[in-house]
Amino acid sequence: MYAIVDIETTGGHASANGITEIAICIHNGKKIIERYSTLVNPQRDIPIYISALTGITNDMVRDAPLFEDVAHDVYHLLNGKIFVAHNVNFDHSFVRHHLLASGYDLQCNKLCTVRLGRKILPGLPSYSLGKLCHHLGITNESRHRAAGDAEATSQLFTLLLQSDKGNHIPDALKQRSKEQVLPPHLPKNDLEQLPNMPGVYYFHDQKGKVIYVGKAKNLKKRVSSHFTGNNPGLQRQEFLRNICHITYQQCGTELIAFVLEAVEIKRLWPKYNRSLKRFEHAYALYAFEDQSGYLRLAVDKHRKYNTPLYTCNSLLEGHSLLVKLIETFDLCPKLCFIQRNTEPCTGNTKTSCACTGHESADDYNKKVNLAIDELKQALPTYAIRDEGRTGEENSCILIEKGQFYGMGYISHYFDVDNLQQLKNHLTPYPGNDYIKNMVSNYATRFPERKVVFA
């Protein structure tokens, strides 16, 4: 038995919007045997543009029952039935959310007439309810009203049942089928093609634009997890509606996938990625020459288009490093912006100092350059050699002088002992502290996979 449902709402996601009308047609597989329809008071104003679309106004629902008043009837009509709707996850998310708020936990199988239409009636220019009905000669006298759209969806579903020569409807209802949970515009084959391997996956919208990038230890399992659950929030509902295609890059290890995800988010700037977009270096150590010809070292906020000597996550970390350089190489605290008052230079135990002009720029700059060389030499150069995508190759990530250089795949037999030869086999990528720290932590956990270059 099928329950064909249509609702009208005050907005696009269940957690912050109400139902203004609900209609249910009980279908026995051949015809409608029972109808239910009611306006619902959503306990909030209906936006003007929605009233213009549906014709349902605040006055019309003012004296209508609250959803909690009709929840008992709705639940018993749906319970034990197969929940059918055009873009089923939208209607189901609203109905289930509001039933839960009223004390009813609806658990039922779902069928989406958008997805079924694409399979059973392929090749049509559009699968929106209005255009499908027009193409198939189904009359809907009350478009964008729950009763009219539920009736039209019921007629469409009858036609789909009659035309289902490929048994798509029984297949969609099988316990292991993903059809009932997938977004309406996503082909099932896109999910089925994914390997059970580490990698990076890309969700594309209708125009092919990447709207989300994710990484996975197991591509198929991770991508499938996006489509489970019943989160009624705006972001998730909009997100699912916009997924039309999935592509992926297989990676040798989860670490490669983590790094590639960070690189791709920075490159593509997808609409629905947020956390890694915000990651930037906080502070950095810079060197510059002042008007008197003295080399100055300074810790400042990271500047996108300036090249730092060293990056760090806090001002304290940067100042601690700079103090060590001052002490080791007898640098001037004032010229390094560590001492900012007008008192005599605290680092000067002699009568002459660069900040007073008694030490020449040439002499002082030699000490600064020694400090910079020491800093660069102290930054490690190493590779992480790990599993590849096949048994014939290894993955490899290179950190050069403390900075992420790039990564790629090398032959299982390649001897990683020459830095320049290794770089010829890798693809350079832009890096940041997030990637550098991630690789560094991995190298600490798995020192046997680390190849150090002198």
Automatic annotation (TrEMBL):
It comes from the Bacteria. SMART domains: EXOIII, GIYc. GO terms for cellular component: cytosol. CDD domains: DEDDh, GIY-YIG_UvrC_Cho. One of its GO terms (molecular function) is DNA binding. Gene3D superfamilies: GIY-YIG endonuclease (3.40.1440.10), Ribonuclease H-like superfamily/Ribonuclease H (3.30.420.10). GO terms for biological process: DNA replication proofreading; nucleotide-excision repair. Residues 196-274 form the GIY-YIG domain. Pfam families: GIY-YIG (PF01541), RNase_T (PF00929). DNA polymerase III is a complex, multichain enzyme responsible for most of the replicative synthesis in bacteria. The epsilon subunit contain the editing function and is a proofreading 3'-5' exonuclease. PANTHER family: DNA POLYMERASE III SUBUNIT EPSILON, EXODEOXYRIBONUCLEASE 10. DNA polymerase III contains a core (composed of alpha, epsilon and theta chains) that associates with a tau subunit. This core dimerizes to form the POLIII' complex. PolIII' associates with the gamma complex (composed of gamma, delta, delta', psi and chi chains) and with the beta chain to form the complete DNA polymerase III complex. This is DNA polymerase-3 subunit epsilon. The lineage of its organism: Bacteria, Pseudomonadati, Bacteroidota, Sphingobacteriia, Sphingobacteriales.
